[in-house]
Amino acid sequence: MKIRRKKGFFSISAVAKIFSVHQQTVRLYEKQGLISPKRSSGNTRLFSEEDIDQLEEVIYLTHEMGINLAGVEMILRLKKQIKKMQNEMNKIFDTTQQELEEENEKSKEVVQNSYQRLLQLKNKDGHKTPTSPTTPQTPYHKEDEESVDLDKWEIEYEDD
After folding, report:
1. Helix spans in 60-128 (H)
2. Contacts of 58 (CB under 8 A, 6+ apart)
3. What pLDDT sits at residue 36?
4. What's 54's domain CATH number?
5. Does 119 or 141 have the greater pLDDT score?
């Protein structure tokens, strides 16, 4: 059983103390839309751990990197867009991988069916051949088994 801990919220005074900034600075960042703390029923700001992480990034960019608030806003917006694009690309990769696996299975079926059809045609000509690539019948030929072992087949692609 996994124990879940309650998420705590911090007041503006506690957050300001954590980062050694004035409460007014935190209010300015909120006014600029760089952070969005929740509000209590009494309209008190409640900072979650995610809000604190966001505030930490804003303070780093402004105080350590010397970026102005407009620049910070642009950086945060671009980071959000990049994350969204990464999620979309991951979905595309997952879908493509699944489609490739399905196509691979279909190709194996086509090869197996073609092999069976060739065996039937060969048997019509009076030749004795195995009915399955994995369970050969007499006469046994080692080269027949290796030539139809579908699990050993690989496709190699050349780079253009």
Report:
1. 69-124
2. 29, 34, 35, 72, 76
3. 95
4. 1.10.1660.10
5. 119
